[in-house]
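Page 42, continued from yesterday. The earlier attempt failed because a stray header line got pasted into the input along with the sequence. Redoing it now with the clean sequence only.
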Amino acid sequence: MEEVKQENKMGVMPEGKLLFNMSAPIIISMLIQALYNIVDSIFVGMYDPEKNYALAAVNLAFPIQSLMISFSVGTSVGVASYLSRSLGQKNYKDANLTAVNGIFLSVITCLVFAVFGWFFAPVYYSFQSAVPEIIEYGVVYVRIVTVFSIGIFLAVVLERLLQSTGRTIYNMYTQGIGAITNIIFDYLLIFGIGPFPRLGVAGAAAATVFGQVVSAILGLFFNIYKNKEINISIRGFRPSGRIIKQIYIVGLPSIVMQSVMSLLTMALNKILTLNPNELEITAGQNVLGAYYKLQSFIFMPVFGLNNAMVPIIAFNYGAKNKKRIMKTYCFALVAAFIYMFLGMLAFMLIPEQLLSLFSLSPLAVGIGKQALRIISVSFLFAAFSIISVSAFQALGNGVYSMLNSLSRQVIVILPSAYILFKTLGVYYIWYAFPLAEVASVLLCAVFIIRIYNRKLKNL
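This time it went through. Structure tokens are written below.
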């Protein structure tokens, strides 16, 4: 018990060093995660390079996979925030209850998505595309990744438990080994190498599931044997309404906020289907899918900063240490701007080389070059918004995060995208992204001032 009562490093280590030490392993593991998402699409693009139907099917599955991640990450954000605050207050009983209830909620959410994926995948793909081959590929893919989604839901919450206690180094192992598993099985199962059958799109889905399950198993192992500040035990477990309420006070707005992203992607794909040219429809949807895969590789370092920053701010808010909260937030902002600036340069200078990774058609490459350059303008604005939104969550103001996301992705980007597409065409729809990020920055600034005056000024 003595080890539990020792001063947590989130309350004493210099802020810059603490943020770097906690975020570096997360960033590395998330970059590996983003890399395998790109590799996934590269292999699928090679499987069907002429028509890109297989790639389109996987790209159109992105909103559903993103929705699963939204629920898993949103719940885990709530778990991490309340658990870190409990540790900051030295309330170890609530910390343990939060961990176990978080795992319980992940299992329940998995079951809901399994039912949805099995029964509604055909309806979903028919809404997104009129091409029979794309629908056939897509239904197979979505059914596999939803019915066997237990890995992703458990992996995310178990990783957040490690982050909440400052043990981020183990996340590098869980995500890294899971990603490598995915990449290996992608190659073996998509193309049928050696004794493995040639499964195509189904092989890509199976490889994704294998990688997620490996990550979950490793996460459980590290939490049981290495995470000494919490005790995961299901003996006599009963769901706690009080703890679940605390988790979703922060987690539910996060789920809504990230789910809006999934609905946005689905809506943008639907807008692209309004094009009378079928070739431009598939090309536009593949460009959108390629953008999100490339964007994830650029945004992951910032998300890694977020994952490290949230428990630090939440811990020090529980400990009533305003100075450490503000310094952590400022360090995270500076680092995020640097990462995003480098990403903007890549999109501006080598868009064609980046798009060539996915075996896209010449038409898609032509659309994509302009798209990447236009969207990259929004990256610097996004750095400010992403860090600020996570700070809202850490301070227990998840509703502000939700309002910011809804304003940016519903009120601004969708109407803008629709108007630009209908008036100017597929080459101009991408201007909606920077417009939305500018609006997000303005709203974030208002919320930051309000939170500071209400919660931090007199802390």
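Notes: The chain has one domain: 12-456.
Reminder to self: strip header lines before submitting.
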